[in-house]
From TrEMBL:
<keyword id="KW-0349">Heme</keyword>
<feature type="binding site">
    <location>
        <position position="92"/>
    </location>
    <ligand>
        <name>Ca(2+) 1</name>
    </ligand>
</feature>
<dbReference type="InterPro" id="IPR010255">
    <property type="entry name" value="Haem_peroxidase_sf"/>
</dbReference>
<keyword id="KW-0479">Metal-binding</keyword>
<keyword id="KW-0376">Hydrogen peroxide</keyword>
<keyword id="KW-0408">Iron</keyword>
<keyword id="KW-0106">Calcium</keyword>
<feature type="active site" description="Proton acceptor">
    <location>
        <position position="88"/>
    </location>
</feature>
<dbReference type="InterPro" id="IPR019794">
    <property type="entry name" value="Peroxidases_AS"/>
</dbReference>
<feature type="binding site">
    <location>
        <position position="96"/>
    </location>
    <ligand>
        <name>Ca(2+) 1</name>
    </ligand>
</feature>
<feature type="binding site">
    <location>
        <position position="112"/>
    </location>
    <ligand>
        <name>Ca(2+) 1</name>
    </ligand>
</feature>
<keyword id="KW-1015">Disulfide bond</keyword>
<feature type="disulfide bond">
    <location>
        <begin position="146"/>
        <end position="348"/>
    </location>
</feature>
<dbReference type="GO" id="GO:0005576">
    <property type="term" value="C:extracellular region"/>
</dbReference>
<dbReference type="GO" id="GO:0042744">
    <property type="term" value="P:hydrogen peroxide catabolic process"/>
</dbReference>
<feature type="signal peptide">
    <location>
        <begin position="1"/>
        <end position="33"/>
    </location>
</feature>
<comment type="similarity">
    <text>Belongs to the peroxidase family. Ascorbate peroxidase subfamily.</text>
</comment>
């Protein structure tokens, strides 16, 4: 996310997608106190398991699927937005549903949802989780965490868009803390270097391979002009465009994103060839200098990540396998278990009353 196409057909294709992009918006953590005398049979924290709700709510995945399937039909933007929501949740203090919390009226402490990096996540993603939670609560009250519903929903949307169907391990509890000030330093920036990205991913227990595989989520979804505008007009202070961008793509993006006075809500697809299909074209695009974000294109220009980009660009099943495994690893970041560290919310937008 490449076969080379002729100049005329490529230009026509790009013009078509970027003309369309004008009407699209970016709608697109257990420590245990040890006494001097060790318990004879210490209780270990439960691990995440695929069948965690086998007895308590065996139909949970079917219930969530009912919502995600309908949501995908009614509002396709729910797909990439929910995948992004899951990523942002896991990277900020772990996969605990804290990104779903709404700031209390009048509070001076903003929740994660209201951090600048989360304000542009399409509301449809939050709607999907809230609808799924309501349905699950009607059948299995007080059992399934919002964090698990988010993880299941993200998988569903990947599959609905043509991507892999992978087993979701469950057993997360919802986090008791949600602070906007925790977001900025834990979310990748559009102009990060590969070194900066690798450092951030390593801090989450993720590898270089995970970075490249998870970046493949950009095979669907859109980016607002503000996230790549400098590449079009003043790359790294040179007063010139990014030389690693295909000239035809540059021209098309400049039509969509003027240097000054443009509509801040206008966006362009991450994947200019198959923007609505979850496939491996994203990697082929990077080889063809068709990456939208600087961080995307850098995956191909950096010699450490280029071989992985090339391998995933040649083999879709290899990408699907790598992506599924990376999503499983990401889904285990700082997982909360038990009432000491977590809660099971009835309403995903509000912490439980203490």
């Amino acid at each position: 996310m490449s076969t080379t196409v002729s100049s005329s057909s490529s230009s026509g294709s790009l013009f078509f997608f970027y003309k369309c992009s004008f009407i699209f918006l970016l709608i697109v953590r257990t420590s245990e106190c040890i006494n001097n005398k060790q318990p004879s049979n210490p209780r270990r924290p439960r691990e995440l398991k695929v069948d965690y709700y086998l007895k308590s709510c065996p139909q949970v995945e079917d219930l969530v699927s009912t919502v995600t399937s309908q949501q995908f039909k009614d509002a396709p933007v729910s797909g990439p937005a929910t995948i992004r929501l899951f990523f942002h949740d896991c990277f900020v203090d772990g996969c605990d549903g804290s990104v779903l919390i709404t700031t209390k009226p009048g509070s001076t402490v903003l929740a994660e949802k209201d951090a600048q990096d989360n304000k542009n996540i399409a509301v449809e993603a939050f709607d999907s989780i809230n609808k799924a939670k309501t349905l699950v609560e009607s059948k299995c009250p007080g059992v399934v965490s919002c964090a698990d519903i988010l993880a299941i929903s993200a998988r569903d949307f990947v599959h609905l868009a043509g991507g892999p169907y992978y087993q979701v391990q469950k057993g997360r509890w919802d986090g008791k803390l949600s602070m906007a000030t925790r977001v900025g330093s834990n979310i990748p920036r559009a102009n990060n270097t590969i070194d900066e990205l690798l450092k951030l991913f390593a801090s989450k227990g993720l590898s270089l391979e995970d970075l490249v595989a998870l970046s493949g989520a950009h095979t669907i979804g859109f980016a607002r002009c503000e996230h790549f505008l400098s590449r079009l007009y003043d790359y790294q202070g040179t007063k010139k465009p990014d030389p690693t961008m295909d000239p035809r793509l540059l021209k098309a993006l400049r039509m969509t994103c003027p240097r000054f006075g443009g509509n801040p809500k206008v966006s362009a697809p991450f994947d200019v060839t198959t923007p609505f299909t979850f496939d491996h074209a994203y990697y082929s695009n990077l080889e063809a200098k068709l990456g939208i974000l600087a961080t995307d294109q850098a995956l191909f220009t950096d010699p450490r990540t280029r071989p992985i980009v090339q391998a995933l660009g040649k083999d879709q099943q290899k990408f699907f396998q790598a992506f599924s495994e990376a999503m499983e690893r990401m889904g285990k970041i700082e997982v909360k278990r038990g009432r000491k560290h977590g809660e099971k919310r009835i309403d995903c937008t509000q912490h439980m009353l203490l």
